[in-house]
């Protein structure tokens, strides 16, 4: 039975978004993957969920500001293993244009492992979808 459930669940990972202090540019592009049919990730068999405890794949935007760092780490810790982490935009990858700011504590791979990088400022929806498709493949190998 357990194997059967794993097999079924493998068809439908749930996504969760964390904003680690982004300018919202990446989040606007991410929003298109939830509400514009052409880019909707539900076509890949997955959907966004409202709780980190239900998530399989986490999408993180922003350079990890001092203000949100503790909350981001707490949310991340609540996501059950095996989780796959996707850095969306150049900010979580290298802090981007905010790199030398006193208020920045990223990049995020200082705090947890990142499986997929989707660079861009912001990345286009097509690139985000490609990153999610890759994340789904990685996640299935971990089940
Ligand atoms: S990568 Fe660019 S668009 Fe995305 S949060 Fe950073 S500055 Fe904003």
What does this structure look like?
This protein is α/β, with parallel strands linked by helices. It has a single domain, classed as 3-Layer(aba) Sandwich (Rossmann fold), CATH 3.40.50.12280. It contains five helices and five strands. It has helices at 2-9, 25-35, 69-78, 90-94, 125-142, and strands at 14-19, 47-48, 57-61, 84-88, 116-118. It has a five-stranded parallel β-sheet, sandwiched between helices. Helix 2 (25-35) links the parallel strand 1 and strand 2. The longest helix has 18 residues, at 125-142. It is globular and about 50 Å long. The two termini are 15 Å apart. It binds iron/sulfur cluster. Iron/sulfur cluster binds at residues 22-23, 25-26, 61-62, 89-91, 96-97, 121-122. Iron/sulfur cluster is lined by residues 22-23, 25-26, 61-62, 89-91, 96-97, 121-122.
> Radius of gyration over alpha carbons?
15 Å
What quaternary form is this? Answer: single chain
Calculate the mean pLDDT score and round it: 94
Query: What's the main sheet like?
Result: 5 strands, parallel
Highest-level CATH class:
Alpha Beta
For the secondary structure, the number of strands is 5
How much β-strand is present in the residues? 5-15%
How is the CATH topology named? Rossmann fold
Q: How many distinct folded domains? A: 1
Shape summary: globular
Helix-strand topology string = HEHEEHEHEH
* Category by helix and strand content: alpha/beta
Bound molecules: iron/sulfur cluster
- Order of strands, main sheet, comes to 2-1-3-4-5
The CATH architecture assignment turns out to be 3-Layer(aba) Sandwich
- Through-space gap between termini: 15 Å
Report helical residue fraction.
25-40%
Low-confidence stretches: none
| Helical segment count | 5
């Amino acid at each position: 039975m357990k194997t059967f459930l794993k097999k079924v669940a493998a068809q439908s990972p749930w996504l969760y978004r964390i904003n680690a202090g982004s300018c919202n540019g990446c989040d606007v592009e991410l929003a298109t993957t939830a509400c514009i049919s052409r880019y909707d990730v539900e076509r890949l068999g997955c959907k966004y969920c409202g709780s980190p405890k239900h998530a399989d794949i986490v999408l993180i935007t922003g350079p990890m500001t001092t203000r949100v760092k503790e909350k981001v780490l707490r949310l991340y810790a609540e996501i059950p293993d095996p989780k796959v982490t996707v850095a969306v935009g150049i900010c979580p990858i290298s802090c981007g244009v905010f790199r030398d700011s006193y208020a920045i504590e990223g990049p995020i791979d200082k705090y947890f492992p990142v499986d997929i990088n989707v660079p861009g400022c912001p990345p286009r929806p097509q690139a985000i979808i490609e990153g999610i498709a890759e994340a789904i493949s990685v996640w299935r190998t971990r089940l």
